[in-house]
Amino acid sequence: MARALRKAEPGVAIGLIDATWGGTAIRAWLDPVATRSIYGAQDAALLETYDRDPLAANTAFAPRWIDWWRTQDTVEPWRTPDAVQWSPVPGVGPWDSLGEAPLQGFTGWVWFRRTVTLTAEQARGGATVSLGIIDDGDQAFVNGKPVGNSFGWSNPRDYAVPGSYWKAGANEVVVAVWNSYGTGGFMGPADRLKLTLTDGSSVKLGDQWRYWISAARGAPPRPPWDTIAGLGLIGNAMVAPLGAIGLRGVAWYQGESDSGQTGYDVRLRGLIDGYRRQSGDPALPVLVVGLAGYGSPGAAPVESGWGKLRDEQRRAVAGTPGTALVSAIDIGSRTDIHPGDKNELGKRLARAALGKPGPQAVSARRDGGDVVVSFNGVEGALVGWSGAPIGFELCAQTCRFAAAVAEGSSVRVKGDGQPVTRVRYAWADTPVVNLYDAAAMTPTSFELVVE
Q: Which segments of 41-192 are extended strands (E)?
Protein backbone atom coordinates (compact mmCIF):
# COMPACT_ATOMS: atom_id res chain seq x y z
CA MET A 1 0.00 0.00 0.00
CA ALA A 2 2.71 2.46 1.03
CA ARG A 3 4.83 1.69 -2.03
CA ALA A 4 1.87 2.21 -4.35
CA LEU A 5 0.97 5.51 -2.69
CA ARG A 6 4.58 6.66 -2.82
CA LYS A 7 4.72 5.83 -6.53
CA ALA A 8 1.47 7.69 -7.20
CA GLU A 9 2.46 10.73 -5.10
CA PRO A 10 6.30 10.88 -5.16
CA GLY A 11 6.35 14.30 -3.51
CA VAL A 12 4.41 13.17 -0.43
CA ALA A 13 6.07 11.43 2.53
CA ILE A 14 4.28 8.19 3.44
CA GLY A 15 4.31 6.67 6.92
CA LEU A 16 2.30 3.74 8.26
CA ILE A 17 1.53 2.77 11.86
CA ASP A 18 0.93 -0.96 12.33
CA ALA A 19 -1.53 -1.75 15.13
CA THR A 20 -2.55 -5.39 14.70
CA TRP A 21 -3.49 -8.36 16.86
CA GLY A 22 -4.65 -11.59 15.23
CA GLY A 23 -7.97 -13.20 16.01
CA THR A 24 -9.49 -10.14 17.64
CA ALA A 25 -13.13 -9.06 17.58
CA ILE A 26 -13.93 -5.51 16.54
CA ARG A 27 -15.28 -4.64 19.98
CA ALA A 28 -11.76 -5.03 21.38
CA TRP A 29 -10.77 -1.94 19.36
CA LEU A 30 -13.68 0.36 20.22
CA ASP A 31 -13.22 3.51 22.29
CA PRO A 32 -15.11 4.01 25.58
CA VAL A 33 -17.81 6.15 23.94
CA ALA A 34 -18.61 3.42 21.41
CA THR A 35 -18.49 0.58 23.93
CA ARG A 36 -20.96 2.30 26.26
CA SER A 37 -23.22 3.28 23.36
CA ILE A 38 -23.30 -0.21 21.84
CA TYR A 39 -22.97 -2.51 24.84
CA GLY A 40 -24.45 -0.35 27.58
CA ALA A 41 -23.36 0.83 30.99
CA GLN A 42 -23.84 -2.61 32.56
CA ASP A 43 -20.96 -4.24 30.67
CA ALA A 44 -18.78 -1.17 31.21
CA ALA A 45 -19.43 -1.45 34.94
CA LEU A 46 -18.72 -5.19 34.81
CA LEU A 47 -15.32 -4.47 33.26
CA GLU A 48 -14.57 -2.02 36.07
CA THR A 49 -15.61 -4.67 38.61
CA TYR A 50 -13.24 -7.17 37.03
CA ASP A 51 -10.36 -4.75 37.50
CA ARG A 52 -11.08 -4.66 41.25
CA ASP A 53 -12.46 -8.17 41.89
CA PRO A 54 -12.21 -10.79 39.11
CA LEU A 55 -14.23 -13.39 41.03
CA ALA A 56 -17.12 -10.99 41.60
CA ALA A 57 -17.12 -10.08 37.91
CA ASN A 58 -17.05 -13.75 36.88
CA THR A 59 -19.90 -14.50 39.28
CA ALA A 60 -21.96 -11.68 37.74
CA PHE A 61 -21.19 -12.75 34.16
CA ALA A 62 -21.70 -16.50 34.62
CA PRO A 63 -25.54 -16.49 34.43
CA ARG A 64 -25.24 -15.09 30.91
CA TRP A 65 -22.90 -17.91 29.94
CA ILE A 66 -25.08 -20.53 31.65
CA ASP A 67 -28.25 -19.27 29.95
CA TRP A 68 -26.43 -19.55 26.62
CA TRP A 69 -25.19 -23.07 27.43
CA ARG A 70 -28.74 -24.21 28.10
CA THR A 71 -29.59 -23.35 24.49
CA GLN A 72 -26.81 -25.71 23.36
CA ASP A 73 -27.08 -28.81 25.55
CA THR A 74 -29.37 -30.25 28.20
CA VAL A 75 -26.49 -31.55 30.33
CA GLU A 76 -24.92 -29.27 32.96
CA PRO A 77 -21.64 -30.97 33.93
CA TRP A 78 -20.69 -28.30 36.48
CA ARG A 79 -23.84 -29.05 38.51
CA THR A 80 -24.15 -32.79 37.96
CA PRO A 81 -20.76 -34.10 36.83
CA ASP A 82 -21.83 -37.72 37.27
CA ALA A 83 -24.57 -37.26 34.67
CA VAL A 84 -22.14 -37.85 31.80
CA GLN A 85 -19.72 -40.62 30.87
CA TRP A 86 -16.19 -39.35 31.39
CA SER A 87 -13.09 -40.76 29.68
CA PRO A 88 -9.58 -40.58 31.13
CA VAL A 89 -7.21 -37.98 29.70
CA PRO A 90 -3.87 -39.71 28.98
CA GLY A 91 -1.81 -36.56 29.54
CA VAL A 92 -1.73 -32.78 29.46
CA GLY A 93 -1.19 -31.08 26.11
CA PRO A 94 -3.01 -30.03 22.94
CA TRP A 95 -5.73 -32.59 22.45
CA ASP A 96 -4.51 -33.49 18.97
CA SER A 97 -1.38 -34.83 20.68
CA LEU A 98 -3.12 -37.03 23.23
CA GLY A 99 -3.73 -40.04 20.99
CA GLU A 100 -7.48 -39.91 21.61
CA ALA A 101 -9.31 -40.54 18.33
CA PRO A 102 -12.43 -38.49 19.25
CA LEU A 103 -10.25 -35.41 19.87
CA GLN A 104 -8.25 -35.53 16.64
CA GLY A 105 -8.97 -32.36 14.67
CA PHE A 106 -11.94 -31.61 16.93
CA THR A 107 -13.49 -28.17 17.09
CA GLY A 108 -16.27 -27.56 19.56
CA TRP A 109 -16.80 -28.10 23.29
CA VAL A 110 -14.93 -30.53 25.53
CA TRP A 111 -15.51 -30.65 29.28
CA PHE A 112 -12.69 -31.61 31.65
CA ARG A 113 -13.09 -32.83 35.23
CA ARG A 114 -10.54 -33.21 38.02
CA THR A 115 -11.36 -34.38 41.55
CA VAL A 116 -9.16 -32.77 44.20
CA THR A 117 -9.01 -33.95 47.81
CA LEU A 118 -8.28 -31.30 50.45
CA THR A 119 -8.00 -31.29 54.20
CA ALA A 120 -10.30 -29.02 56.20
CA GLU A 121 -7.41 -26.63 56.82
CA GLN A 122 -6.44 -26.50 53.13
CA ALA A 123 -10.03 -25.89 52.06
CA ARG A 124 -10.58 -23.17 54.64
CA GLY A 125 -7.70 -21.06 53.35
CA GLY A 126 -8.76 -21.04 49.70
CA ALA A 127 -6.55 -21.60 46.68
CA THR A 128 -5.62 -20.32 43.23
CA VAL A 129 -6.53 -22.70 40.41
CA SER A 130 -3.81 -22.56 37.74
CA LEU A 131 -4.68 -24.26 34.45
CA GLY A 132 -1.87 -22.97 32.27
CA ILE A 133 -2.70 -21.81 28.75
CA ILE A 134 -5.96 -23.07 27.26
CA ASP A 135 -6.80 -22.94 23.57
CA ASP A 136 -9.20 -21.24 22.88
CA GLY A 137 -11.73 -20.38 25.59
CA ASP A 138 -12.80 -21.73 28.97
CA GLN A 139 -15.44 -21.44 31.65
CA ALA A 140 -14.20 -22.90 34.93
CA PHE A 141 -16.18 -24.09 37.96
CA VAL A 142 -15.28 -25.29 41.44
CA ASN A 143 -17.92 -27.43 43.15
CA GLY A 144 -20.57 -26.05 40.80
CA LYS A 145 -19.67 -22.38 41.27
CA PRO A 146 -18.21 -20.28 38.41
CA VAL A 147 -14.68 -19.04 39.10
CA GLY A 148 -13.24 -17.90 35.78
CA ASN A 149 -13.87 -17.24 32.10
CA SER A 150 -11.10 -16.46 29.62
CA PHE A 151 -10.30 -16.64 25.94
CA GLY A 152 -6.95 -16.69 24.17
CA TRP A 153 -4.16 -19.05 23.22
CA SER A 154 -1.33 -17.21 24.99
CA ASN A 155 -2.62 -16.18 28.42
CA PRO A 156 -2.28 -18.52 31.43
CA ARG A 157 -5.43 -19.12 33.49
CA ASP A 158 -5.06 -18.38 37.20
CA TYR A 159 -8.32 -18.16 39.13
CA ALA A 160 -8.32 -17.18 42.82
CA VAL A 161 -11.00 -19.18 44.65
CA PRO A 162 -11.94 -18.38 48.28
CA GLY A 163 -12.20 -20.91 51.07
CA SER A 164 -16.00 -20.78 51.02
CA TYR A 165 -15.96 -22.53 47.63
CA TRP A 166 -13.92 -25.51 48.88
CA LYS A 167 -14.67 -28.28 51.34
CA ALA A 168 -12.83 -30.95 53.23
CA GLY A 169 -12.66 -34.12 51.15
CA ALA A 170 -13.40 -34.43 47.44
CA ASN A 171 -13.78 -31.22 45.38
CA GLU A 172 -14.72 -31.03 41.71
CA VAL A 173 -12.86 -28.73 39.32
CA VAL A 174 -14.80 -28.72 36.04
CA VAL A 175 -13.69 -26.76 32.98
CA ALA A 176 -15.55 -26.26 29.72
CA VAL A 177 -13.06 -25.74 26.88
CA TRP A 178 -14.10 -24.29 23.53
CA ASN A 179 -11.90 -24.74 20.48
CA SER A 180 -12.88 -22.84 17.35
CA TYR A 181 -9.83 -23.35 15.13
CA GLY A 182 -6.82 -25.65 15.00
CA THR A 183 -6.01 -27.67 18.07
CA GLY A 184 -7.47 -27.09 21.52
CA GLY A 185 -7.32 -27.99 25.20
CA PHE A 186 -4.74 -27.56 27.94
CA MET A 187 -1.47 -26.53 26.31
CA GLY A 188 0.66 -27.72 29.21
CA PRO A 189 3.17 -28.58 30.41
CA ALA A 190 1.61 -30.61 33.18
CA ASP A 191 3.46 -28.85 35.99
CA ARG A 192 1.67 -25.59 35.19
CA LEU A 193 -1.64 -27.13 36.31
CA LYS A 194 -1.90 -26.88 40.09
CA LEU A 195 -3.67 -25.49 43.15
CA THR A 196 -1.62 -22.95 45.04
CA LEU A 197 -2.71 -22.82 48.67
CA THR A 198 -2.50 -19.78 50.92
CA ASP A 199 0.45 -21.24 52.85
CA GLY A 200 2.46 -21.33 49.62
CA SER A 201 2.25 -25.09 49.12
CA SER A 202 0.63 -26.57 46.04
CA VAL A 203 -1.40 -29.55 44.90
CA LYS A 204 -0.48 -30.90 41.48
CA LEU A 205 -3.26 -30.99 38.87
CA GLY A 206 -1.21 -32.27 35.93
CA ASP A 207 -2.82 -35.71 35.84
CA GLN A 208 -6.02 -37.64 36.59
CA TRP A 209 -8.20 -35.46 34.38
CA ARG A 210 -11.23 -36.88 32.60
CA TYR A 211 -13.03 -35.51 29.55
CA TRP A 212 -16.44 -35.54 27.90
CA ILE A 213 -17.28 -34.22 24.43
CA SER A 214 -20.49 -32.19 24.15
CA ALA A 215 -22.57 -31.93 20.99
CA ALA A 216 -22.66 -28.13 21.46
CA ARG A 217 -21.08 -26.21 18.58
CA GLY A 218 -22.07 -22.59 19.12
CA ALA A 219 -19.92 -19.61 20.06
CA PRO A 220 -20.46 -18.47 23.66
CA PRO A 221 -21.00 -14.96 25.00
CA ARG A 222 -17.66 -13.35 25.68
CA PRO A 223 -17.03 -11.36 28.89
CA PRO A 224 -16.01 -7.71 28.65
CA TRP A 225 -12.52 -8.55 29.99
CA ASP A 226 -11.90 -11.14 27.24
CA THR A 227 -8.29 -10.98 26.04
CA ILE A 228 -9.07 -10.52 22.36
CA ALA A 229 -12.75 -9.57 22.43
CA GLY A 230 -12.98 -7.47 25.58
CA LEU A 231 -14.60 -4.07 25.50
CA GLY A 232 -12.00 -1.73 24.04
CA LEU A 233 -9.06 -3.40 25.79
CA ILE A 234 -6.78 -3.72 22.76
CA GLY A 235 -7.69 -0.33 21.36
CA ASN A 236 -6.98 1.17 24.77
CA ALA A 237 -3.53 -0.44 24.81
CA MET A 238 -2.48 -0.04 21.18
CA VAL A 239 -4.33 2.96 19.69
CA ALA A 240 -5.39 5.28 22.51
CA PRO A 241 -1.78 5.95 23.60
CA LEU A 242 -1.14 7.60 20.21
CA GLY A 243 -3.37 10.46 21.34
CA ALA A 244 -4.55 13.06 18.85
CA ILE A 245 -1.90 12.15 16.31
CA GLY A 246 -2.32 13.79 12.92
CA LEU A 247 -3.51 10.78 10.96
CA ARG A 248 -4.51 11.23 7.34
CA GLY A 249 -6.41 7.96 7.10
CA VAL A 250 -7.08 4.52 8.57
CA ALA A 251 -7.14 1.13 6.84
CA TRP A 252 -9.26 -1.43 8.74
CA TYR A 253 -8.89 -5.15 7.93
CA GLN A 254 -10.82 -7.33 10.38
CA GLY A 255 -14.08 -9.21 10.73
CA GLU A 256 -13.31 -12.93 10.75
CA SER A 257 -13.83 -13.20 14.52
CA ASP A 258 -17.18 -11.37 14.25
CA SER A 259 -18.66 -13.76 11.71
CA GLY A 260 -21.98 -15.15 12.91
CA GLN A 261 -22.63 -12.18 15.21
CA THR A 262 -25.17 -9.70 13.88
CA GLY A 263 -24.72 -5.95 14.08
CA TYR A 264 -21.23 -5.63 12.64
CA ASP A 265 -22.33 -2.52 10.74
CA VAL A 266 -23.18 -0.82 14.05
CA ARG A 267 -19.86 -1.80 15.60
CA LEU A 268 -17.94 -0.69 12.51
CA ARG A 269 -19.59 2.73 12.55
CA GLY A 270 -18.71 2.99 16.25
CA LEU A 271 -15.09 2.17 15.45
CA ILE A 272 -14.93 4.80 12.70
CA ASP A 273 -16.48 7.43 14.96
CA GLY A 274 -13.92 6.58 17.64
CA TYR A 275 -10.95 7.04 15.33
CA ARG A 276 -12.38 10.36 14.21
CA ARG A 277 -12.89 11.48 17.81
CA GLN A 278 -9.34 10.58 18.74
CA SER A 279 -7.75 12.23 15.70
CA GLY A 280 -9.87 15.36 16.08
CA ASP A 281 -10.87 15.02 12.42
CA PRO A 282 -14.61 14.33 11.94
CA ALA A 283 -13.95 13.57 8.27
CA LEU A 284 -10.92 11.26 8.77
CA PRO A 285 -10.88 8.89 5.75
CA VAL A 286 -11.34 5.22 6.67
CA LEU A 287 -10.79 2.32 4.27
CA VAL A 288 -12.49 -0.99 5.10
CA VAL A 289 -11.38 -4.30 3.64
CA GLY A 290 -14.23 -6.63 2.69
CA LEU A 291 -13.31 -10.08 3.97
CA ALA A 292 -11.29 -12.41 1.78
CA GLY A 293 -12.76 -15.81 1.02
CA TYR A 294 -12.17 -18.63 3.49
CA GLY A 295 -14.06 -21.88 4.03
CA SER A 296 -16.55 -23.80 1.92
CA PRO A 297 -17.36 -22.40 -1.56
CA GLY A 298 -20.99 -23.64 -1.63
CA ALA A 299 -22.33 -25.58 -4.62
CA ALA A 300 -25.85 -24.26 -3.97
CA PRO A 301 -27.23 -21.09 -2.36
CA VAL A 302 -26.44 -21.17 1.35
CA GLU A 303 -26.66 -18.97 4.40
CA SER A 304 -23.20 -17.61 5.01
CA GLY A 305 -21.90 -15.82 8.09
CA TRP A 306 -19.02 -14.40 6.08
CA GLY A 307 -21.33 -13.28 3.29
CA LYS A 308 -23.57 -11.52 5.81
CA LEU A 309 -20.62 -9.83 7.49
CA ARG A 310 -19.29 -8.55 4.15
CA ASP A 311 -22.70 -7.09 3.44
CA GLU A 312 -22.76 -5.43 6.87
CA GLN A 313 -19.36 -3.93 6.05
CA ARG A 314 -20.81 -2.65 2.79
CA ARG A 315 -23.85 -1.11 4.48
CA ALA A 316 -21.74 0.59 7.15
CA VAL A 317 -19.52 2.16 4.51
CA ALA A 318 -22.47 3.15 2.32
CA GLY A 319 -23.99 5.05 5.25
CA THR A 320 -20.80 6.73 6.47
CA PRO A 321 -19.32 9.60 4.42
CA GLY A 322 -15.56 9.63 3.99
CA THR A 323 -15.20 5.85 3.94
CA ALA A 324 -14.54 3.31 1.20
CA LEU A 325 -14.88 -0.46 0.89
CA VAL A 326 -12.09 -2.48 -0.74
CA SER A 327 -12.96 -6.02 -1.77
CA ALA A 328 -10.57 -8.89 -1.05
CA ILE A 329 -13.16 -11.55 -1.80
CA ASP A 330 -11.20 -13.04 -4.70
CA ILE A 331 -7.70 -13.13 -3.19
CA GLY A 332 -8.31 -15.41 -0.22
CA SER A 333 -7.83 -19.14 0.23
CA ARG A 334 -10.61 -21.51 1.20
CA THR A 335 -8.12 -23.52 3.29
CA ASP A 336 -6.17 -20.66 4.92
CA ILE A 337 -7.76 -17.88 6.93
CA HIS A 338 -4.62 -15.79 6.33
CA PRO A 339 -4.58 -15.02 2.58
CA GLY A 340 -1.10 -14.80 1.11
CA ASP A 341 -1.58 -12.15 -1.57
CA LYS A 342 -1.26 -9.08 0.63
CA ASN A 343 0.55 -7.20 -2.15
CA GLU A 344 -2.55 -7.12 -4.34
CA LEU A 345 -4.65 -6.02 -1.38
CA GLY A 346 -2.17 -3.25 -0.63
CA LYS A 347 -2.43 -2.00 -4.20
CA ARG A 348 -6.23 -1.98 -3.97
CA LEU A 349 -6.09 -0.04 -0.71
CA ALA A 350 -3.79 2.49 -2.34
CA ARG A 351 -6.27 2.93 -5.20
CA ALA A 352 -9.06 3.45 -2.66
CA ALA A 353 -6.98 6.04 -0.80
CA LEU A 354 -6.66 7.86 -4.12
CA GLY A 355 -10.43 7.81 -4.63
CA LYS A 356 -10.82 4.63 -6.69
CA PRO A 357 -12.11 1.85 -4.40
CA GLY A 358 -13.71 -0.18 -7.18
CA PRO A 359 -17.28 -1.33 -7.95
CA GLN A 360 -19.85 -0.92 -5.18
CA ALA A 361 -23.41 -2.24 -5.46
CA VAL A 362 -25.93 0.52 -4.72
CA SER A 363 -29.41 -0.54 -5.87
CA ALA A 364 -31.54 -3.23 -7.47
CA ARG A 365 -34.67 -2.50 -9.52
CA ARG A 366 -37.14 -4.49 -11.54
CA ASP A 367 -37.01 -4.22 -15.30
CA GLY A 368 -39.69 -6.37 -16.82
CA GLY A 369 -39.04 -9.86 -15.51
CA ASP A 370 -35.39 -9.12 -14.76
CA VAL A 371 -33.56 -7.35 -11.95
CA VAL A 372 -30.97 -4.70 -12.76
CA VAL A 373 -28.23 -4.16 -10.16
CA SER A 374 -26.48 -0.78 -10.40
CA PHE A 375 -22.91 -0.11 -9.26
CA ASN A 376 -20.87 3.00 -8.70
CA GLY A 377 -17.08 3.27 -8.70
CA VAL A 378 -16.80 1.27 -11.92
CA GLU A 379 -13.77 2.02 -14.08
CA GLY A 380 -14.60 1.38 -17.72
CA ALA A 381 -17.26 -1.30 -17.75
CA LEU A 382 -18.09 -4.43 -15.80
CA VAL A 383 -17.27 -7.73 -17.46
CA GLY A 384 -17.49 -11.39 -16.57
CA TRP A 385 -14.09 -13.02 -16.86
CA SER A 386 -14.27 -16.29 -18.80
CA GLY A 387 -17.97 -15.88 -19.51
CA ALA A 388 -21.12 -14.39 -18.05
CA PRO A 389 -21.04 -13.10 -14.44
CA ILE A 390 -21.71 -15.81 -11.86
CA GLY A 391 -22.66 -15.83 -8.19
CA PHE A 392 -25.95 -13.90 -8.47
CA GLU A 393 -29.02 -15.18 -6.63
CA LEU A 394 -32.68 -14.21 -6.79
CA CYS A 395 -34.47 -14.59 -3.46
CA ALA A 396 -37.97 -14.63 -2.02
CA GLN A 397 -38.64 -17.23 0.67
CA THR A 398 -35.55 -19.05 -0.58
CA CYS A 399 -32.70 -18.18 -2.93
CA ARG A 400 -31.64 -19.71 -6.25
CA PHE A 401 -28.78 -19.03 -8.61
CA ALA A 402 -29.65 -16.89 -11.61
CA ALA A 403 -28.08 -16.09 -14.97
CA ALA A 404 -26.66 -12.58 -15.38
CA VAL A 405 -25.31 -10.26 -18.06
CA ALA A 406 -22.94 -7.32 -17.51
CA GLU A 407 -24.21 -4.05 -18.99
CA GLY A 408 -21.75 -1.20 -18.50
CA SER A 409 -21.91 -0.19 -14.83
CA SER A 410 -24.81 -2.52 -14.08
CA VAL A 411 -25.64 -6.22 -14.18
CA ARG A 412 -28.91 -7.61 -15.47
CA VAL A 413 -29.99 -10.65 -13.47
CA LYS A 414 -32.32 -12.74 -15.58
CA GLY A 415 -35.73 -13.47 -14.13
CA ASP A 416 -36.98 -17.05 -13.96
CA GLY A 417 -40.70 -16.42 -13.54
CA GLN A 418 -40.58 -16.97 -9.78
CA PRO A 419 -41.20 -14.32 -7.08
CA VAL A 420 -38.22 -12.16 -6.15
CA THR A 421 -37.83 -9.64 -3.33
CA ARG A 422 -34.05 -9.61 -2.91
CA VAL A 423 -30.93 -10.15 -4.93
CA ARG A 424 -27.69 -11.53 -3.50
CA TYR A 425 -24.19 -11.79 -4.86
CA ALA A 426 -21.18 -13.89 -3.80
CA TRP A 427 -23.15 -15.15 -0.79
CA ALA A 428 -20.80 -17.84 0.53
CA ASP A 429 -17.79 -18.04 2.81
CA THR A 430 -15.56 -18.58 -0.22
CA PRO A 431 -17.60 -17.65 -3.29
CA VAL A 432 -16.34 -18.14 -6.81
CA VAL A 433 -16.53 -14.75 -8.54
CA ASN A 434 -15.63 -13.44 -11.98
CA LEU A 435 -17.14 -9.91 -12.11
CA TYR A 436 -14.50 -7.18 -12.60
CA ASP A 437 -14.13 -3.69 -13.99
CA ALA A 438 -11.37 -2.44 -16.31
CA ALA A 439 -9.02 -1.91 -13.34
CA ALA A 440 -9.45 -5.56 -12.25
CA MET A 441 -11.43 -4.46 -9.17
CA THR A 442 -14.33 -6.62 -8.00
CA PRO A 443 -17.34 -6.01 -5.72
CA THR A 444 -17.78 -7.78 -2.41
CA SER A 445 -20.79 -9.80 -1.21
CA PHE A 446 -24.08 -7.93 -1.03
CA GLU A 447 -27.81 -8.36 -0.54
CA LEU A 448 -30.18 -5.70 -1.89
CA VAL A 449 -33.94 -5.30 -1.69
CA VAL A 450 -35.43 -5.23 -5.17
CA GLU A 451 -37.29 -1.97 -5.73
A: 87-88, 108-118, 127-135, 137-142, 145-151, 156-161, 169-179, 185-186
